[in-house]
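Re: your question about Cytochrome-c peroxidase

S., sorry for the slow reply, the queue was backed up all week. Below is exactly what I fed in.
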Amino acid sequence: MHSNPTSFAFTRSLIHAAAALALAAGLTALAGCDARPGASAPVVPVVPAAQAAPAVAPASQPQTRAQVFEGVKQMAALGRQLFFDPSLSGSGKLACASCHSAEHAFGPPNALAVQLGGDDMRRAGFRAVPSLKYLRGIPPFSEHFHDSPDEGDESVDAGPTGGLTWDGRVDTRDAQARIPLTSPFEMSSSPAKVAKAVRAAPYVDAFRKAFGDKVLADDQATFDAVLRALDAFQQQPALFDPYTSKYDAYLAGRAQLTPAELRGLQLFNDEKKGNCASCHLSQRTLEGGPPQFSDFGLIAIGVPRNRALPVNRDPRFYDLGACGPERTDLKGRGEFCGLFRTPSLRNVATRKTFFHNGVYHSLEDVMRFYVERDIHPEKFYPVVHGKVQRFDDLPKRYWDNINREPPFDRKPGDQPALNEAEIKDVIAFLNTLTDGYQAAATQASR
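Result:
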């Protein structure tokens, strides 16, 4: 269990603040885009150079508020084109949007445990694609996270918390974007390849307007500019932080939950039943902000090994999360082994693959793992010579890291924390966390 990290203060750059204001003023939302592997990227009209104001005014000229907003809009529009452009990848077939589908809460568009990539589009990684929505509230990674004075006793150590990836190794969206672009089993590109693609892209004039001609002369500078534009695109609240679920409407008094949804919410919050809210915070912050449905803490829960992943054919390989192999700064720190960041449950009902290794493909299976892991371990782990091989994806020397709080506080012979009817109610509640409820209600009334 981790404490609530929602009241920490971020230092926002001007572009981030202006992006929020620009969206409030009506920045065009993303619609109808498709960048599946092999599909052509959607082309967004680019304003000709002669018709648009520069995205960034010369340093000697102070910018007006209107110029700042216009620059942010242009940067976000450029980032959108980059996000859907498969030519940035080594194969020329994989865009950011191929794995982070706008129609699936910017998460995976299918039920694959991991997506295929690489130069030949056949390489598999070993982690499920996370959603890119609701990253704004995640704090930078800290080994010892303490609540602010506004929310509680700062002496309370919530443990390792934060970071934007499963292992918490990066803290900013531009740093996060660098990972898939250069990963050999994802987009498998490089600064030189990305720069070459940008120079040949239909949006190159927009790129020059945003960053200047000199940037394109240098591969690394071009690559860094691409990361900045992708960051600007993901700073649009209407797309990435909309808070338009039925539960948000319920908290605002604009919707009523069904009896099943209300029962599910109660079970979700009950420390003696689901105890989900101990990590997936469901209440508004003390400042009145919407719940994030995560405390963003890193935790080990002993998820079963996904034997369908090619990398797991090697019995010596383990994905140890915060202590490696992708993250290297905590290598050798045993207390971090097996820990992965708690994801937000917003839009979780739209997913078809769950946990860091994609081992499960339905919320029903996820819920049964939570409530029966310690009661019926044989349902989840291999049985060899009559003995259950518990926690088979984590070396035994790290088992002390595994969470034992409810509902993981039971033993064989005990009753599960939730029965099948209660599991259905919790899932009914989880479905209220899907964005678009207000939009759907508006369309239905027309």
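The CA atoms of residues 300 and 337 lie 8 Å apart. The domain at 246-432 is CATH 1.10.760.10 (Cytochrome Bc1 Complex; Chain D, domain 2).

Happy to talk it through on Thursday.
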